[in-house]
Q: What sequence folds into this?
């Protein structure tokens, strides 16, 4: 019986272990070894920390990373601010069929690929696009307006792309909040804001944190949206990794960048968890 | 017992069919072709398959991705690739991803001799040739001549009259083009890292100075066509075919060979180091270099080929556009890319990153 259970456990675990081992652990070890190589001549390499020194030595790389991280945090906060009321409405006010329909509506944009979604925004925002034409037609502006190729356009794209990943965990946690608890809050003299602050948000905290982690990571690792909507000033860190690997043939520096992204983003998530007094176990439980 | 025999017979015959199938596959190979959009049109592929019995699998890519793909596998996974001639000796010395071409299997009489010799000269590593030419073209300026008549050279893209309506790529052709326009000679400095770094630094300063006037740095061909077509930009750096394509839709827009010289490239055929269907690859090369087939490829890709006598099979429209963009003096002024020495990409890359990050 004991051995039978153990075999069953091993069999059930095997796919996960294989997945983690073959697709995540082994490639990362390979990437790490690659990042420690330094090119010293044609086809000649030696082991050194030169690539990491290059990352910290060139302010451009650090600045780009910080920019990417700060923009991703901002995108996460915006997604939360927009997503929370939506999730609250779907979880608490909408009933039965309406609830499913609303939930489905959140899901619909994700049936098309990210490329098409981003291109949709380009059609809306560009100088000869729909918004610009509409503003000119209504007489609000005289000439064409360019809304594409700036940080705001990029932010719109990032928030739109990751909205679903914030709403789903929020709905799940908010649904588990008993309505009578909110009623009790009002009965005890609470006002709207105080009930929100003292009851709803503390209860939804695990959902907020897990949603935020997912959205932050998605934004940080996004390549398409910053490249397409961001324009000439929007250097995103993933763009630099891509450039090192594909355009510059500099896999060594690209691998070092990839590792720095992994380490720094993990640090930021850890810091956010500490700051909000959450733990990963509580969030995932 | 009887049951078992029957099963054994079935097994043997199945093995036989499988073996037969394998032998069948050996004489008619699958050619895995890594190429650019338009270089292997469907009708040409169908004709080749009907004629030779080989099948062709086409993967579309660009210079950098081709090399990155072959590098990742050590030259495995494709049987024939088409990088530009300046990107062959460097990656070959550095990564060893190609194998030498057996010139006896190539019908050399089908090639324009000067172009074949130039490519062979540029792609010889260790005394062995690694590439033969296929399609050639240039990059320069695509200009809306009605709205931006003053744009004649790369530096004119920084002019106040076109500020805010200019687009170009942040890639190495931009660095090279601006350098020539500024009176520098980057190709002559290829062998001298210090001199080349100096040139790139000057170009970097210029590009940062010009940045406020740029609408966006385009990334893909379609993005550029969209920007020029809609009139959001009036002047850009791009390939000749892009300009001619737009010219067909709007006569105001066309390709202009810059005063300091258009930049000429030749896309080639190379054999990846671990390619498995060399015979099919040679068959494909000899097939597409036939003048009539080369004419079909020119019609699809918009660029001319190194095939001798293919001009007769090219439409008059395209010929007229080519002649309008390239008066004889402009043809002589084309700056052909020499082979890029390994390591220069890092210098250019750092400069391009700084331009992109500059405000």
A:
């Amino acid at each position: 019986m004991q051995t039978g259970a153990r075999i069953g456990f091993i069999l059930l675990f095997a796919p996960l272990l294989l997945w983690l081992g073959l697709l995540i652990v082994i490639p990362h070890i390979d990437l790490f070894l690659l990042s420690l190589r330094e090119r010293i001549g044609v086809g000649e390499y030696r082991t050194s920390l030169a690539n990491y020194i290059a990352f910290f030595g060139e302010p451009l790389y650090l600045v780009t990373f910080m920019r990417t991280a700060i923009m991703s945090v901002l995108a996460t906060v915006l997604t939360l601010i927009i997503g929370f009321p939506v999730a609250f409405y779907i979880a608490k006010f909408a009933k039965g069929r309406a609830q499913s329909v609303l939930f489905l509506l959140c899901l619909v944009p994700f049936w098309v690929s990210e490329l098409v979604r981003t291109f949709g925004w380009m059609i809306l925002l560009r100088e000869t696009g729909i918004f610009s034409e509409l503003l000119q037609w209504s007489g609000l502006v005289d000439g064409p307006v360019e809304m594409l190729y700036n940080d705001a356009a990029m932010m719109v794209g990032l928030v739109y792309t990751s909205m679903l990943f914030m709403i789903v965990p929020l709905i799940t946690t908010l649904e588990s909040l008993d309505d009578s608890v909110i009623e009790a809050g009002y009965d005890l003299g609470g006002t709207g804001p105080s009930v929100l602050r003292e009851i709803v948000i503390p209860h939804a905290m695990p959902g907020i944190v897990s949603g935020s982690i997912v959205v932050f990571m998605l934004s940080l690792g996004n390549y398409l949206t910053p490249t397409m909507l961001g324009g000439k000033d929007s250097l995103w860190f993933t763009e630099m990794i891509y450039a090192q690997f594909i355009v510059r043939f500099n896999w060594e520096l690209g691998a070092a960048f990839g590792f720095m992204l992994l380490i720094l983003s993990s640090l930021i998530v850890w810091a956010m968890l500490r700051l909000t007094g959450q733990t990963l176990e509580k969030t995932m439980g | 017992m009887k049951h078992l025999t029957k099963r054994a017979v079935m097994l043997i015959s199945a093995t036989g069919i499988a073996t037969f199938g394998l032998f069948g596959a050996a004489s008619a190979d699958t050619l895995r072709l890594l190429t650019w959009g338009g270089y292997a049109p469907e009708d040409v592929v169908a004709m080749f398959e009907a004629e030779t019995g080989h099948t062709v699998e086409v993967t579309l890519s660009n210079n950098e991705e081709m090399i990155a793909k072959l590098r990742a596998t050590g030259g495995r996974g494709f049987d024939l690739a088409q990088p530009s001639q300046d990107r062959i000796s460097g990656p070959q010395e550095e990564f060893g991803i190609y194998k030498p071409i057996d010139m006896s299997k190539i019908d050399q009489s089908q090639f324009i001799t000067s172009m074949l010799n130039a490519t062979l000269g540029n792609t010889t590593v260790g005394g062995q040739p690694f590439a033969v030419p296929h399609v050639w073209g240039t990059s320069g300026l695509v200009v809306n001549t009605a709205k931006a008549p003053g744009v004649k050279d790369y530096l004119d893209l920084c002019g106040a009259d076109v500020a805010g309506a200019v687009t170009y790529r942040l890639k190495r052709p931009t660095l090279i083009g601006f350098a020539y326009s500024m009176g520098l000679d980057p190709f002559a400095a290829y062998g001298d890292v210090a001199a080349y770094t100096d040139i790139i630094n000057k170009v970097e300063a210029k590009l940062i100075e010009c940045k406020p006037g740029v609408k966006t740095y385009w990334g893909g061909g379609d993005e550029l066509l969209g920007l020029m077509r809609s009139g959001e930009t009036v002047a850009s750096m791009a390939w000749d075919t892009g300009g001619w394509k737009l010219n067909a839709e709007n006569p105001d827009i066309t390709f202009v060979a810059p005063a300091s010289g258009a930049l000429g490239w030749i896309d080639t055929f190379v054999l990846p180091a671990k390619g498995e269907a060399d015979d099919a690859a040679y068959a494909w090369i000899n097939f597409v270099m036939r003048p009539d087939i080369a004419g079909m490829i020119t019609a699809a890709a918009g660029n001319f080929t190194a095939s001798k006598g293919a001009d007769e099979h090219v439409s008059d429209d395209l010929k007229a556009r080519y002649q309008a963009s390239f008066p004889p003096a402009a043809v002589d002024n084309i700056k052909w890319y020499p082979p890029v020495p390994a390591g220069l990409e890092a210098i250019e890359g750092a400069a391009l990153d700084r331009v992109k990050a500059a405000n």
Summary: The longest helix of chain B spans residues 2-27. Confidence is low (pLDDT under 50) at residues 8-26 of chain B. Chain B has two domains: 2-136+265-326, 138-264+330-357.
